[in-house]
Amino acid sequence: MTENSQSRVARRKAQQNEKKNKKSVWKLIFQISAAVAGLAALAVIIIVSYFIITTPKLDHSLLGDPASTKVLDINGDVFADLGQERRTKISYEDLPDILVDAVLATEDVRFFSHSGVDIKRSIAAVIANLTDGFGAEGGSTITQQVVKSSFLTPEKTMKRKIQEQWLALQLDRAYEKEEILEMYLNKIFYGNYAYGVATAAEAYFGITDLDELTLPQAALLAGLPQRPSAYDPTVNPDLAQERMNTVLKLMVRHEKITQ
User: Fold this and answer.
1) Domain definitions of the chain by residue range
2) d(Cα 158, Cα 188) in Å, to the nearest integer?
């Protein structure tokens, strides 16, 4: 009887020791995992901080691009457009609502509500980049596109993306939204040697007053910057038509126009 009692005690102690050992193993695994996660988080913080520290300064002189010089003949008609880039500069007040709506629906629908970086869009881009590879989706706002073309290289790297977002936050605090949209529409390339929306409107449609743009014309101008050469209506009219229809559908989706 005594031997049976001692045997039960021994088995109970062995079971207790086994449970303790299991708890110790899981505790050790948890501690190691927490340490690895902590070190990874610290490494990310250090890398991001380095990228931010080495970000170019927000040089306001680089935000504006010079207009080209137009030489007129005796009749007042332009016969030469001189400069590195063919560009006619406009102000925000020169932009018709249909053009602004087309651009925002296509490029940055929450432009007037975010702080330079669209968090919702950035998260979607991160997921796409993780599943399809880095660079699969940009997620850049109009503000980010302005700083990218003004201060940064076009390379698709994590460093440039972080610096782009950091500069976009600064730009959004330094300028009104209307000023940033004006910079964007004066800066971007539309193909056919045209820089800026005013030059593009004249190059493709012979229009010098943007208020004369029709809805389809505004939609095409909003869609051109993504692939200027491919969507050039003078070269690829079918692709240009498809792109225009895509922009019009986006305008309907975002309630800029009705069906």
Assistant:
1) 1-54, 60-253
2) 23
Whole-model pTM: value is: 0.77
CA distance 210 to 57: 34
pLDDT at 39: 87
* Alpha-carbon distances, residue 74 vs 70, 83, 143, 202 (angstroms): 13, 21, 42, 21
The C-alpha angle 226, 111, 132, rounded to 5 degrees, equals 50
CB 223 within 8 A of CB 106: yes
CB 228 within 8 A of CB 190: yes
Report CA 213 to chain centroid distance, whole Å: 27
Sign of the C-alpha dihedral computed for residues 159, 160, 165 and 171 taken in this order: positive
**Per-residue pLDDT at 16:** 60
Distance between CA atoms of 208 and 206, rounded to whole angstroms? 7
Integer Cα distance of 199 and 207 in angstroms: 9
Task: Provide the CATH topology of domain 60-253.
Answer: Penicillin binding protein transpeptidase fold (1.10.3810)
Place of tokens 């800029």: 256
Tokens of 99: 């053009």
CA angle 58/134/224 to nearest 5° reads 65
Residues of the chain scoring pLDDT < 50: 69-83, 134-136
Helical (H) or strand (E) element with 78: strand 78-82
120-153 burial, b at 16+ Cβ within 10 Å, e below that, comes to ebbeebeebbeeeeeeebbbbbbbbbbbbbbbbe
Minimal CA–CA distance to 180: which of 168, 162, 189, 164?
168
Place of tokens 């800066």: 187
